[in-house]
Amino acid sequence: MRETILSTRKLSKTYVADGVQAHVLGSVDLELYRGDFTSIMGPSGSGKSTLLYCLSGMDAPTSGEVIFEGEDIARLGQGRLSELRAQRFGFVFQAANLVSNLTLYENVAVPGYLKRGRSASETKRATDELVARMGLAQVASHLPSQASGGQKQRCAVARAVVNEPAIVFADEPTGALNRANSLEVLDLLGELNRNGISILMVTHDVRSAVRGNRVLYFEDGGIRGELELAPWDPAFSGDEAYVREREAMANAWLASLSW
Ligand SMILES: Nc1ncnc2c1ncn2[C@@H]1O[C@H](COP(=O)(O)OP(=O)(O)OP(=O)(O)O)[C@@H](O)[C@H]1O
């Protein structure tokens, strides 16, 4: 029996721009499960990022509930919401958005010092471990301007998990990366997931989506289908036949949804 980590009830979001209403989320009922790597696909402009922002408390829904560990985060005050985002959630975006005058090491460490109940030396240890695990040890003292795109994004992944979040929200985390760097970031997200962090990732890319064990298809304001896959086996990451087989399953499923 899978444990729900995050769920929505009748989640709706309407934007009003220039007096015109856009109903982007239309009464979404969704369950996300602890330990899953869930991917969200769907047409451009359909509202995938809006869904991710409402689920993670970065944006407020127009109506409906977003329940995380028993709490409706759509109704929380700013103080409690900020605490939740700092203590329990991690975020990775298409652009790394690092602080330009801090080193890569400091970019990872700084949010770590906000972790409740952890000493400075424990944060340092967590940062050291992550910097090594993300392959950043050689460039830890570099500023973001001195780092490559892949290094910056690996740093953004490390920063997202330094506080040991329950769930990482990733919005097109490989969208700005070349193939080699994309694979590295996806491998890192997979490794974090196998270490117990739930992942929710929005992506346009089928190859990236099949890193998940569950793929949701979002269109016309709601979830229109879902595909269950066996958890990604890292032993086969470099095996083209393994990747193609998962991709073929996802493509057939997407075709059945008229993607
Ligand atoms: N702040 C805003 N104000 C008004 N409309 C918005 C706002 N943010 C998003 N929208 C509109 O909401 C719709 C959904 O946008 P969203 O970015 O969630 O889609 P998406 O599926 O993530 O798109 P893409 O795949 O292209 O990144 C779009 O039509 C967009 O123009």
Automatic annotation (TrEMBL):
GO terms for molecular function: ATP binding; ATP hydrolysis activity; transmembrane transporter activity. Pfam families: ABC_tran. Residues 6-245 form the ABC transporter domain. The keyword Nucleotide-binding applies. It comes from the Bacteria. One of its GO terms (cellular component) is membrane protein complex. InterPro entries: AAA+_ATPase, ABC_transporter-like_ATP-bd, ABC_transpr_LolD-like, MacB-like_ATP-bd, P-loop_NTPase. Keywords: ATP-binding, Nucleotide-binding, Transport. PANTHER family: ABC TRANSPORTER RELATED (PTHR24220:SF685), IMPORT ATP-BINDING PROTEIN (PTHR24220). This is ABC transporter ATP-binding protein.
